[in-house]
Amino acid sequence: MSKKMWIVAVMVLMVSVIAGGCTDNTNDELTDMEDNITTYGAVDDDEMGPAERVDRGVRMEHYGAMRPSEIEINTGDTLVWRNLKPQGTYVLISDDGLFEDQEMYVHATHSYTFNKIGTYTFSVKDMPDMTLKVIVQ
After folding, report:
1. Sequential DSSP letters for 53-98
2. CA distance 52 to 38
3. For residue 136, what pLDDT is reported?
4. How far is CA 16 from CA 33, 84, 105, in A?
5. Separation between Cα atoms, residue 86 and residue 83, nearest integer Å
6. In the chain, which residues have pLDDT < 70?
7. Which of helix, strand or coil describes residue 10?
8. pLDDT at position 99
9. Is CATH 2.60.40.1180 the right assignment for the domain spanning 26-136?
């Protein structure tokens, strides 16, 4: 094989290895979150504990959106936010003071169980369009 063919073969191999590592596997992780009743365990190995019932999931997406942006739940339901930003952090804020600001690293989650009827809003620091309205019945 000529030297040019070897160079081309090596370049093709390198591109395929790099491209294979860049695929987004978050859809597999989100499938469970999008189901209405799901069980999740702890976030970090250091915090391993019993699984927690999750009635709804909120995706904090890397392009500055929370999905869904409005949700209706029942009292006693647990809501879990998951940071899907590929790098960096989001700071989740409960505009109603239900919990302290939560700095959420890549793929981190934060959960909250709603025990009182009402309408609550949540936002992300420095992201004015990234909001969530929760209506608890």
Report:
1. EESEEEEEETTTEEESSEEEE-TT-EEEEEE--SSS-EEEEETT-S
2. 9
3. 97
4. 31, 25, 29
5. 9
6. 1, 4-6, 8-54
7. helix
8. 97
9. no
Closest CA to 78 of 15, 134, 133: 134
- At residue 38, what is the residue type? T
In whole angstroms, give the CA distance from residue 137 to residue 75: 6
Q: How far apart are CA 4 and CA 14, in angstroms?
A: 15
User: What is the C-alpha to C-alpha distance for residues 90 and 103, in angstroms, rounded to an integer?
Assistant: 6
The Cα 69–Cα 87 span in angstroms is 22
Picking from 107, 121, 136, 127, the residue whose alpha carbon sits closest to that of residue 24 is 107
Distance separating alpha carbons of residues 15 and 69, to the nearest angstrom: 38
Distance, CA of 78 to CA of 89 (rounded, Å): 22
pLDDT of 1: 61
Q: Considering only CA atoms, which of 137, 128, 124 is closest in space to residue 58?
A: 124
